[in-house]
TrEMBL record:
Source species of the chain: Cocos nucifera
Gene Ontology cellular component terms for the protein in this record: cytoplasm; nucleus
GO BP: any one term: ribosome biogenesis
Gene3D superfamilies assigned: Classic Zinc Finger (3.30.160.60)
Superkingdom, natural source: Eukaryota
Similarity comment text for this entry: Belongs to the ZNF593/BUD20 C2H2-type zinc-finger protein family.
Name of the protein: Zinc finger protein
Domain Matrin-type: 61-91
SMART domains: ZnF_U1
Entries under InterPro entries matching the protein: Matrin/U1-C_Znf_C2H2, Matrin/U1-like-C_Znf_C2H2, Znf_C2H2_jaz, Znf_C2H2_sf, Znf_C2H2_type
UniProt entry tagged with the keyword Lyase: no
Pfam families xref list: zf-C2H2_jaz
Taxonomy of the source species: Eukaryota, Viridiplantae, Streptophyta, Embryophyta, Tracheophyta
Entry GO MF terms: nucleic acid binding; ribonucleoprotein complex binding; zinc ion binding
Amino acid sequence: MGGKCPHRKVKKRRFSHKTARRSNFLLKGDDVVYGELLKLAEGAEAKPQPLDEDLPGMGQFYCIHCDRYFANEDVRDEHFRSKRHKRRVKQMMGPAPHTQLDAELAAGMGMPDDGPKLMST
């Protein structure tokens, strides 16, 4: 006797709205974040973040590894202790991630290889 209600036309959403919205925020790629971390490691000083009203916490609380902004320092410190952040730090300390140039070379779209030159004229 159970089953769907015949007059119900709206389907329930099965997935979280938050995960669907997360893809709307543009995140930097792994290779870009890795490059920024290399610049900091080489001795380039970290610039203070400019104030931005559109970002959480006016853009002052930022995690460079995860490319995320936080509302306040407590939330950012809690993020630093999370498993997600620790995995990301470990990933960034490993070998360099693949770049777009690597992908193009692997697909055969890189620089042409004309072979050895037989005659020089």
